[in-house]
Amino acid sequence: MEFEEYVAARGQDLVRLGFTVSGDYQRAEDLAQIALMQAFRKWRKVRAADDPHHYVRRILVNEYLSMTRRRSFSEAPTADLDVRRTVPDHAADIANSDDLWRALATLSARERVVLVLRYYQDLDDQTIADVLGIKPSSVRATASRALASLRKARESNVPMRG
């Protein structure tokens, strides 16, 4: 597969992944662009991988986690998301409600990434562990903590539907 074919086939998937982890459409486009630039530089290696999309997805997730460690990135507000206004494609269908997005925005970047990869990208624990460079048991522990935080938020009168 040539790079141009990959971008045509998977570019929007990368933008959607960027949006679900960051909560910001412009940031999602930036993340996808950065991941594609890095993949282009190493395209022979990426193309030779068992799953090129997995390789590029890992680049995107690592870039997002790196960005969240930078002060200027993490100060950007994510709790006031208006998914319907910021996303021109089907990414808004991913969320069941604005309340869920607000609750997800309260999680750490790593917790949010684990939940997004597990429930929105439908990846198994081993694949998520490979993407994040951690053990599957760490994926399960992180997911458990994140879900507990979401349950606690729901019980604390954070109105979440569904």
TrEMBL record:
CDD domains: Sigma70_r4. Residues 10-72 form the RNA polymerase sigma-70 region domain. GO terms for biological process: DNA-templated transcription initiation. The keyword DNA-binding applies. GO terms for molecular function: DNA binding; sigma factor activity. Keywords: DNA-binding, Sigma factor, Transcription, Transcription regulation. The keyword DNA-binding applies. It comes from the Bacteria. Residues 98-150 form the RNA polymerase sigma factor 70 region 4 type domain. InterPro entries: RNA_pol_sigma-70-like, RNA_pol_sigma-70_dom, RNA_pol_sigma-E_actinobac, RNA_pol_sigma70_r2, RNA_pol_sigma70_r4_t2, RNA_pol_sigma_r2, RNA_pol_sigma_r3/r4-like, WH-like_DNA-bd_sf. Belongs to the sigma-70 factor family. ECF subfamily. This is RNA polymerase sigma-70 factor (Sigma-E family). It comes from Kribbella shirazensis.
